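Hey,
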Amino acid sequence: MTRLVLAGAALAAAGAALAQAPATAEARNMRLAGYNDLQGRTAYQPTIAHQGQRWIAYVGHHGDRKLNPLTGKDEDNGTSIVDVTDVHNPKYLAHIPGEPGKAEQGGAQMVRVCSGADLPKADKSKFYMLRVFGNQAHEIWDVTDPARPSLLTTIGKGLKGTHKNFWECDTGIAYLVSGHPQWRTNRMTQIYDLSDPAKPVFIRDFGLVGQQPGAGGPVPIAVHGAISTGPKGNRVYFGYGTNTEGVVQIVDRAKLLNGAPEPTVENLLAPQVARLDLPPMHGAHTVFPIPGMPIAEFSKNLLGKTRDFLVITDEAIQKECLEGRQMAWFVDATTETKPFGVASWTVPEHSGNFCSRGGRFGTHSSNESMTPVYYRKIMFFAHFNAGVRAVDIRDPFNPKEIGFYIPAVNKNTVVLETPASMIAAKLPYTEAANRLAIQTNNVEVDDRGYIYIVDRANSGMHILELTGPARDIANWQAAVR
């Protein structure tokens, strides 16, 4: 693979360990537009909101504790708020502390934002942020002035787990990944009507059969998150699992919201359209729907010219490739009750010797924005030590990588802790596990076409743009005018 090595500052002062990692960014058809260090915090989900004449990035963090230079105090990792109107000069506006604790046990990983102008019953002049508070609860904040956020209300206190929420801004329906104390799993789904963010209305609890209170037998894998197509598409796509025993569940949205709420076996199955069980060594971190996809190759066929697809992204967990390769899978769901895989995509390991670079190698997440700039054309996949990858999906039967960007490690980059599962399994542990490595964790795009990646190993937020042939596919110039 041909690579363009971007110029970068030498990192000798950071010590011998830092010198083991690439000291310059690596890229093809992507370039750096802007950067913010996010106060050196370990980051999970970025969400980009267009607020009036401004563009604001809200970034959720894993648990830890760092100095906030704005207050001069050490604060538990929570939510960073960054003005990215000028992507070349991002301005850090505020940090909202999260739950005390390390990694998955603290912080405020997930964040979504809706405008009051879109929410049916909200104050039309305001903007609202939905976030998790560690594993304990969900919160709604008034972020109309993003530099001065204020807590509006708390939802679901006393939970035993949270994660990747989804909020329909046009209806207010929210799918909150929670851990209800009476359920048998630490992550199921609680559905709320947040059309008036100040007055949350509970609708129902939902999960796989076997997770509900009073069930017996093995407990199915926990949910990771959902993506809804809203009233028009009338589907909700649930992904369960990370790197093992994954499940994809296609659900009728109307039946889910209007059906009997008691978590009986019958009521949990009633809205289910289909269930796809993945192989044992693959999960479903993100399930991204692409319905109504025209297939150029089939344009002269009588049938099948347009297809519905799901793009399923696994999450790599173990360092040094000590697991099955986690990657992206393309599933044809045109016949919803019989979804089947038609393609897969991964970064070739030999293209960067990624299994020996240190850290995790494999996919983690895809972008979730359906902006017309990229939808049905290009998807972006966070790939840990292989950075972010741009993939041409115009032919979902043959996805092709068209660009990538791997940031250089910097003074804030740390070596991530060894996963407990790796220790428990007594897996081999080599020198590579102690090397500094970029760990691109999550990716999102905005309606201008900029790409935002954040790093699990404290390396900050990089704002990117496409170049060359990749930029042409996105029709970038039309998008930014």
